[in-house]
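Standup notes
- HV: blocked on the assembly model, inputs below
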Amino acid sequence: MAVLIYIEQEAGGIKKSSLEAVSYGRTLADSLGTSALAVGLGPISTEEWTKVGKAGAVKGIHVADERLSAGIIQAHASAIADVFSYVDADILVLAKSSLGDAVAARLSVKLQAGLVSNVAALPDLSEGFTVKRSIFTGKAFAFTAIKTVKKILAIKKNILDIREEDHDLVVEVRQSSLGEEVFSAKITGMQKAEGQVSLPEADIVVSGGRGLKGPENWNLIEDLARELGAATGCSKPVSDLNWRPHHEHVGQTGIKVSPTLYVAVGISGAIQHLAGVNSSKKILVINKDPEAPFFKAADYGIVGDAFEVLPKLTDAVKAIK
Amino acid sequence: MKILVCITHVPDTTSRIQFTDNNTTFDQTGVQYVIGPYDDYALARAVELRDQTSGKLTVLNVGDAASDPTLRKALAIGADEAVRIDTVPKDSFYVARQIAHFVEENDFDLILMGRESSDFNGGMVHGMVGELLGLPSISPVMKLEIDGKTAKLSREIEGGKEELEAPLPLIVGCQEPIAEWKIPNMRGIMSARTKPLLVKEPLSEQSHAEVVSYELPPAKGAVRLFTTDQVDDLVKLLKNEANVL
Ligand SMILES: Cc1cc2nc3c(=O)[nH]c(=O)nc-3n(C[C@H](O)[C@H](O)[C@H](O)COP(=O)(O)OP(=O)(O)OC[C@H]3O[C@@H](n4cnc5c(N)ncnc54)[C@H](O)[C@@H]3O)c2cc1C
Ligand SMILES: Nc1ncnc2c1ncn2[C@@H]1O[C@H](COP(=O)(O)O)[C@@H](O)[C@H]1O
């Protein structure tokens, strides 16, 4: 009745959110008196597997099939289902992501497993199996009892620290037996920003709004982001106006982030924007209007002109490092 | 082409979220209900595709009679018929089973949903329906073109996008900018009154999970304000006190 963790890669490395999922799975396995195993699809290097071991997995199952390096949803779901029954798992843990969500949904049907997404804490095992998940785009939580024997938990980012175990994990290679039918959707092209921290994965996010006046001023946002090791985001009008690409737009209709620090510059703080950021640990708002609604949702605020504040802030961060 | 759009009936984002009965029931007082924002994108694209192919567009909701005004709005926006499966949605799996059963009985070429519902934010129902029907499901999709029996799509991935091709029938979870939201015009509103809204009995099916209780996040403390000249102090605080740098 093992706990299996589905790990995802980004730019050749295991995602940080997947390592969080491994640690979540390990802590859960410990409290259930069972073991935590990780499954990885497509090519994964030995160094990356080592990280998975440190994060808490005692064993890795590697389905190295090259065809799985692309995120074809049906193929990933079939490969995980095979490993899930092979290791006789009862619980699957994964990090919430655009691929992970889609794969988890299909698996829930394949495995007859109750699925809870947006999981915000370890489950309460005192009476059955009750999971805290965030709902209404972060405005509330629901405690949800899973009634099925098999369970799938898609966890939110940043809900626990990554463990640092001192052991080497064993990696077992499992042959894939996937037929062509699960590859009926074909990926024909990809555009991806290279060498940047991706928005949902980032620990710090610096976002700009219409207060930045135009795309030509984004170097101010990017400079601060670089010093902070942060990803850059924006408000919806900014991506609607094509100042920034759509995948940077944060909010109810865009990306939902839960970083350690969210910095909002020249964003008014409309409720639809807040819906995407309200699970951030800390929020810093920079706005020249002291009445901007965002200050009500903020932990720290600077009332001032972004064009003056940003260079100063970037310098101050540089100085402290 | 026969198109199905699955829509949710959800509180408007600006709604104040509260619970009653010792935190076991969502408090509907003063809550304004709307078509789920992502479902609205799905519907808008479906209307365009229906117009291009002179097909038929059905909207479906799994819900009780409270959803009817939302379904009427979808008819006003341009759907040809509305269907409501008359039951209270228990969990994503339960809803997916109802939708899959309806699709089995009615054969659609294209099934559009929202990327996620804005109440429970699962982003799960499309994948479940896909698996139940043995069809591909692709989400979150920002562009969708139909070329004969093939769909060409662009899907958002972390930090970028991916172009895909998939055979019909197909299930798609939609998000912007797949199409511009459509606002019903007077003619749409008038004709919606006479378009069919069918009510169907649900399948009896178990749910996998149930909500035991709700909780609101702890209230936020007051913001600590700084002036432009105090930026250094703020950064020190972020590093030493908040531990976020
Ligand atoms: C259904 C729906 C869904 C939506 N989804 C989203 C979403 O997902 N994400 C999203 O962001 N929005 C969304 N919106 C839009 C949202 O309601 C707001 O319109 C939007 O967030 C405003 O963007 P903004 O704050 O950048 O611009 P504005 O509201 O124009 O605010 C600009 C801010 O910059 C400040 N400012 C101006 N100049 C300066 C300066 N020199 N220095 C410092 N501050 C300055 C101003 O005081 C102001 O507060 C949605 C709307 C609807 C109806
Ligand atoms: N009760 C429902 N009735 C009709 N469609 C639904 C229902 N619940 C979810 N859906 C569809 O499934 C999508 C994803 O929902 P969810 O998995 O709940 O986030 C929604 O955007 C809708 O298109």
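- HV (later): unblocked. Chain B has one domain: 2-217. Residues 37-53 of chain B form the longest helix (17 residues).
- Next: hand off to the docking folks.
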